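Ops channel
N.P.: pipeline sanity check, posting one input/output pair.
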């Protein structure tokens, strides 16, 4: 029994090392290749993954059906699922190439609207929470913000493999924005906002953090409340910012007006209503570009029944 455990551990370590070096090699290759050549190659990979990654494909189609099943026939949903795979194979190239991107290169690749909302929120030395999601190309969004002179920090969940997580953190740092590991940097998060710095937070996934069930595509959806709690506690604005990929393979950025943070004195009510507004912002941008969100993620994994029938529509915070 002990021998089997040791063998399994050695096998896992060998597999993780191989995967890490494979990722490093792929990143090195795509930094050498011209961007459009790299995108062409990676799209071939994306098409193959759609065919062979059956679990991810089925999950993507299932979630798209949950969201759009009453609006699209099954054939269109399958086509949309295929475009999801193509989208993320495309933006992965630009993520791998982040260290190559100079300010002129970014200026030629990205146009932005609504930057004034960030500047207004930061007026007078205030911090701001930039609310984005696993949508479009959120890593490139961080690089753009850093190259615009914003001392951006982002809260990210550590990846499943420690070496690959270090690689991603290094890419972020080289691109000019700082990674804060979720659950390990609470003091750094508060210090940054109090120092007048922008903080990027993504709350569009079902993770093991305190949250409330709000409406998302017509379904009760467990949504983290950390960003809203920070905004309420520190008196900073929440400004939505999303980057989307255009058909010509350039990017657009849209920053919107601050999400109204309610402060009526009823903490649970305010927390719920503001989180619902955040969810509404997510749904609007995803409906416009449905192929650019991570539908393979188990967004509806946590069910209200796990907390009792009273959890449906409840304003109570569930961990």
């Amino acid at each position: 029994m002990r021998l089997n455990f040791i063998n399994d551990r050695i096998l896992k370590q060998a597999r993780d090392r191989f995967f890490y070096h494979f990722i490093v090699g792929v990143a090195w290759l795509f930094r050498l290749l011209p961007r459009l050549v790299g995108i062409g190659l990676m799209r071939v990979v994306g098409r193959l993954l759609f065919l062979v990654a059956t679990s991810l494909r089925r999950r993507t189609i299932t979630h798209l059906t949950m969201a759009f099943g009453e609006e699209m026939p099954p054939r269109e949903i399958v086509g949309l699922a295929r475009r999801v795979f193509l989208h993320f194979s495309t933006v992965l190239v630009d993520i791998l190439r982040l260290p190559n991107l100079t300010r002129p290169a970014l200026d030629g690749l990205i146009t932005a609207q609504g930057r004034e909302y960030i500047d207004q929120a930061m007026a007078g030395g205030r911090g701001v929470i930039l609310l984005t999601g696993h949508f479009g190309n959120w890593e490139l969004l961080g690089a753009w913000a850093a190259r615009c002179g914003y001392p951006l920090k982002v809260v990210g969940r550590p990846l499943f493999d420690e070496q690959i997580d270090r690689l991603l953190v290094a890419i972020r740092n080289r691109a000019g924005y700082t990674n804060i590991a979720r659950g390990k940097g609470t003091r750094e998060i508060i210090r940054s906002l109090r120092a007048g710095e922008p903080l990027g937070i993504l709350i569009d996934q079902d993770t093991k953090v305190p949250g409330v069930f709000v409406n998302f595509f017509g379904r009760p959806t467990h949504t983290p409340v950390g960003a809203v709690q920070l905004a309420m506690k520190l008196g900073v604005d929440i400004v939505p910012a999303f980057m989307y990929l255009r058909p010509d393979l350039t990017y657009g950025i849209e920053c919107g007006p601050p999400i109204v943070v309610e402060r009526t004195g009823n903490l649970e009510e305010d927390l719920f209503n503001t989180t619902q507004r955040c969810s509404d912002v997510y749904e609007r941008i995803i409906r416009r570009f449905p192929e650019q969100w991570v539908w393979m993620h188990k967004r509806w994994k946590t069910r209200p029944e796990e907390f009792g029938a009273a959890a449906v529509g409840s304003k109570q915070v569930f961990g």
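N.P.: looks fine end to end. DSSP finds eleven helices and nine strands in the chain.
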